[in-house]
Amino acid sequence: MDKALYIESFVRINNHALFYDNKKIALNNFETLEEKLKFLYKNQNIQYPKFYKMDVLSKAGFIAVEYLQAKLEASSNTSLLFANQTASLQTDILYQEGINNRNNYVPSPSLFVYTLPNIVMGEICIKHKLTGENIFLVFEDFNTKLIIENIILQFKLNKADKLVFCWLEVFDNKLDVLNCIISTQKTEKTPLLNHENLNTIYHYGRNN
Amino acid sequence: MEEIIEKLKKDLIEHLNLEDLSPNDIDNEAPLFGDGLGLDSIDALEIIVLLERNYGIKIKDQETGKEAMKSINSLATFIKNNQ
């Protein structure tokens, strides 16, 4: 029988706000994704200059983890499972624009390294010294069935005693991010990982 | 030479996304990589692209690049000698 899994902590980010620990940080005053993410970085007093070199996908994933209230500790048993619809398409397009014109050919190495969506997990693992499994999946949409099946598999295969799940859809000036820590530890405040609860936190803040 | 150094620092700050730094924060003699400015191998590739695009200079081999990129002063000297 599968172990029960619980949502230990979550962060939800959309174009209007970041929600964490019953708090809300409004983002309506900022126009671009870059501006919103830079504001969130400075708001948390993070000192990590590498942040400015990341692409928007990595910045968004990095920020989502930094706002988690259940902090990550260096571990070989914390897995990462990230997913989205558009992979690294935002950065792929930017890179392509740089090399389209043969008369103004600008292949940027620092952009090129982000033309794979899984790099965001590398950035997070480096910062938090996580050496467990990680996987980036591309789905048609936020599919709770597929997400939960894949999370359960990580625990079933003993690849994790804790897992960072992140739905990280960042494309065309749209932020749609849900980041949670999943574990086998039950407390009063930790809801069970199931379709209903995952959908509830995904839609958190929609009407706020 | 002062002009080259000043322009170089501004170019590096913009091109390498060194957002929280101003030209005055960068020590001309400090190492660019590791300690000092703390740049990495991707930054090295970006500097090569920057030299070609903004200064019209191609780095021909690894040794030349390594010597040139020791510090702001060595990079500025390299630019002055190759423009």
Task: Describe the overall structure.
The complex is a heterodimer of chains A (208) and B (83). The termini of chain A are far apart. A seven-stranded mixed beta sheet of chain A has the order 3-2-1-7-6-4-5, with helices on both faces. Chain A has helices at residues 33-43, 56-66, 89-100, 109-112, 119-128, 144-156, 195-202, and strands spanning 6-14, 17-20, 23-26, 78-84, 134-138, 162-171, 174-183. Chain A contains seven helices and seven strands, in the order E-E-E-H-H-E-H-H-H-E-H-E-E-H. In chain A, helix 1 packs parallel to helix 2 (56-66). By secondary structure, chain A is α/β, with parallel strands linked by helices. Chain A is 33% helix and 24% strand. By secondary structure, chain B is mostly helical. In chain B, helix 1 crosses helix 4. The radius of gyration of chain B is 11 Å and the shape is globular. The model of chain B has no long low-confidence stretch (mean pLDDT 93). Chain A binds chain B through residues 49, 52-53, 106-110, 113, and chain B through 16-20, 38, 42-43, 45-46, 49, 53.
